[in-house]
């Protein structure tokens, strides 16, 4: 997700787009870094960031945060607007037009929402950079993470891979997840008002009534009182039918293609592994907390394995946020569309300081 200290400086080429030349730059611009092909990366201690002490964090949203109209604000900032131009070349169509004008059904599709959120979230970094004091805020960030898809955005921000390579990975990830969802009838539902133990018991009760192909499990550990369950459609229907008897406040069927972060996504793993294997990933310049184990990883090969397994592993967001807050995190910034992450953080700690930077 070359040497991390060799960064790039944009200059304008004859066709009006920026080209990127290796140079020493400030650490915050790492996510634009270039690739040095054929170089051998020395082994890195994966525990390099194990003793991290967070002060300021960048938090990046995942699928579901998208909304028609996003990206419009970014057009006022040249560096942010250019990200969409570069994205259009990679995607092969006008991604910005879909972000701004929809239709909603198209933007909500897995294959489009994931790249759209990735680009919009990194555009939000440029919007922040352009405002007074913004560069100082970016320089102060010493830890980052993202919700599911947002982990790729976080890795791009830290220079683990280039903007372009990250977008190519996210594009393939969305396509592979959509194809896996199409291969079996599956769904996701949010359970509101229960702790994780109760949700697990609800899943166990539902699983007693369905075949193996429709089993369910907790897929997103978001925060106390908000957990997402994934599985076969019949299993999800059983969860919904039993939720009130377990004293759940409500259930909300999620508008996603299928049972993300479960074995239903197994068909996507090999495609992701192949794409990650062909992508140069460098050690992030600051800790990126993984969704899989709520730990930061420094070794590029380990990061590749983590990203491949992420689509079938439950998202450990609750543990991640608890750890950051316990370790002394002072302020967070949610960069990108929506305010989902801010809501989660506030639910876990009402006194937590978090600012939204939209695009």
What do you see in this structure?
InterPro entries: Ac_transferase_dom_sf, Acyl_transferase_dom, Acyl_Trfase/lysoPLipase, Malonyl_CoA-ACP_transAc, Malonyl_CoA-ACP_transAc_FabD, Malonyl_transacylase_ACP-bd, Mitochondrial_malonyltrans. The protein has helices at 78-91, 95-101, 104-108, 110-130, 134-140, 150-157, 163-182, 196-207, 233-242, 266-277, 300-310, 317-326, 340-348, and strands spanning 7-12, 18-23, 56-60, 143-146, 186-192, 216-223, 226-232, 250-253, 288-289, 331-335, 353-357. It is of the alpha/beta class. The protein has a five-stranded parallel β-sheet with strand order 9-4-3-10-11, with helices on both faces. Strand 1 (7-12) and strand 2 (18-23) form a beta hairpin. The model is unreliable at 1-41 (pLDDT under 50).
| Helix amount | 40-55%
- How many whole angstroms does the radius of gyration measure? 20 Å
What is the rounded distance between the termini?
A: 23 Å
The neighbouring-strand order within the major sheet is: 9-4-3-10-11
How many helices does DSSP assign? 13
Number of strands: 11
Give the averaged pLDDT, no decimals.
Answer: 89
Low-confidence stretches are 1-41
Percent of residues in beta strands: 15-25%
Q: Main beta sheet, described?
A: 5 strands, parallel
- The helix/strand order is EEEHHHHHEHHEHEEHEHEHHEHE
The backbone outline, from C-alpha atoms, is: globular
- Secondary structure class reads alpha/beta
């Amino acid at each position: 997700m070359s040497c991390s200290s060799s960064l790039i400086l944009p200059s304008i080429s004859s066709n009006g787009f920026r080209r990127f030349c290796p140079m020493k730059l400030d650490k915050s611009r790492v996510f634009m870094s270039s690739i040095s092909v054929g170089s051998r990366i020395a082994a890195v201690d994966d525990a390099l960031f194990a003793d991290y002490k967070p002060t300021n964090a960048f938090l990046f949203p995942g699928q579901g945060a998208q909304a028609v109209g996003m990206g419009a604000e970014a057009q006022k900032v040249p560096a942010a607007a250019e990200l969409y131009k570069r994205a259009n070349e990679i995607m092969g169509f006008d991604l910005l037009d879909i972000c701004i004008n929809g239709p909603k059904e198209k933007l909500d599709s897995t294959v489009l929402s994931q790249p759209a959120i990735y680009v919009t979230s990194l555009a939000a970094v440029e919007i922040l950079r352009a405002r007074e004091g913004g560069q100082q805020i970016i320089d102060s960030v010493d830890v980052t993470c993202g919700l599911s898809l947002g982990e790729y955005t976080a890795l791009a921000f830290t220079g683990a891979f280039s903007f372009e390579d990250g977008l190519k990975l996210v594009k393939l990830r969305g396509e592979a997840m959509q194809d896996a969802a199409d291969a079996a009838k599956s769904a996701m539902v949010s359970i509101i008002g229960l702790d994780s133990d109760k949700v697990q018991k609800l899943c166990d009760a539902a699983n007693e009534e369905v075949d193996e192909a429709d089993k369910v499990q907790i897929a997103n550990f978001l925060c106390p009182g908000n957990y997402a369950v994934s599985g076969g459609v019949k299993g999800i229907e059983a969860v919904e039918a039993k939720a009130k008897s377990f004293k759940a406040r409500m259930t909300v069927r999620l508008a996603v293609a299928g049972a993300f972060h479960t074995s239903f996504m197994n068909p996507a793993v090999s495609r992701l592994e192949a794409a990650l294997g062909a992508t140069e990933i460098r050690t992030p310049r600051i800790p990126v907390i993984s969704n899989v184990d709520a730990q930061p990883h420094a070794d590029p090969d380990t990061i590749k394995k983590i990203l491949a397994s992420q689509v079938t592993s439950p998202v450990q967001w609750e543990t991640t946020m608890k750890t950051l807050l316990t370790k002394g995190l002072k302020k967070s910034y949610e960069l990108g569309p929506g305010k989902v992450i801010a809501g989660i953080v506030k639910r876990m700690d009402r006194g937590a300081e978090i600012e939204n930077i939209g695009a």
